[in-house]
Amino acid sequence: MQEIHKLEHYIYSTILPAVHKPGASFTLQPTDLGNRNVIFFFTIENLPPLILKGYRKKSRFKKALRGSRLLAQHGINVPHLYFSDSAQTCFREFGCYLVCEEKIAGKSLAEFEDIKEFVPSVARCYAQLHRAREPHWKSLFSVSLLRYRSSVMSDMEERLDYLDRWNPQRFSSKTMGSCRTWFYKRKASLNSLQGFSLCHGDVNRKNIIISESGDIFLIDPEAVKFAPFLLEFYRLELNLCEDRLDVIELFDTIYCKHADKKALEELKQCGEFFKAYVLLECACYFTKKRRQVKADEPLQNYYIRQGEKVFAALNEMIKGE
Prior knowledge:
Elements: H1 4-18, E1 26-30, E2 37-44, E3 50-55, H2 58-73, E4 81-85, H3 88-94, E5 97-102, E6 106-108, H4 119-129, E7 133-134, E8 137-138, E9 142-143, H5 145-166, H6 173-185, E10 196-199, E11 208-211, E12 216-218, E13 225-227, H7 229-241, H8 245-258, H9 261-292, H10 298-318
Antiparallel strand pairs: 1-2, 2-3, 3-5, 4-5, 6-11, 7-10, 8-9, 10-13, 11-12
Helix pairs in contact: 4-8, 5-6, 5-9, 7-9, 9-10
């Protein structure tokens, strides 16, 4: 994507005719927003603001298009897709596969200091999303409920081993043994899972947009999949609400008000298991991030503080085992 003039020629010869704007004037502004993707701010005469996104891997390109379609089919607001190009000629020319989509006018939740006023809308959005159900866990492949239960316990063991190796100060052998016992005592609760729900898959405040009209939009749908909704529910609690009890209570109340009966039953039967599972997941995440940054970097203290909160919450759940 280094030679902008090639991309501009491609826009003129390919994208403009495809969106029924042949010969229209346009602007293209490079950004540094993408970690894995290349992102441009893009305008075409008489069209709303756009984003031109380049996916370096075809698998991500396909997942993003599939995820966007799934979300839209189930009534979730996503950016309108204007154009996509999966051709190898496109990849050979630019080193990526291209997508042109609507740029939502608004702000991400990450841009607000206090998000409490938006929590009810976010809770309703995800409750609606999770109403879509499938009998299999669908990402790159399908996994039955029985196989998924075994996978969860295997992942739990791997995470305990990771913490035992890299964070023994906060997760002693005694604590690890208590945690393992706690999970195995509640393994049977997984039998109450009745299926898998449609999930966004990447819980991040930057991926939740509040439009200028106050509507909720979900962006970056590459990780959309069918999975136990409780994983996303508790990830939202941690990421969205952090440790604010008033916000957690608000989120839980609104979500449960709009969830279906199956979700409420699963929340009652195996919610405790998945809450601890997500805390264990977060404990590993912050331990890993802490190891990746230098001791004198500001983020080091942030990861330590967040990790301490997660460990404290996990220890509170498993104490007494």
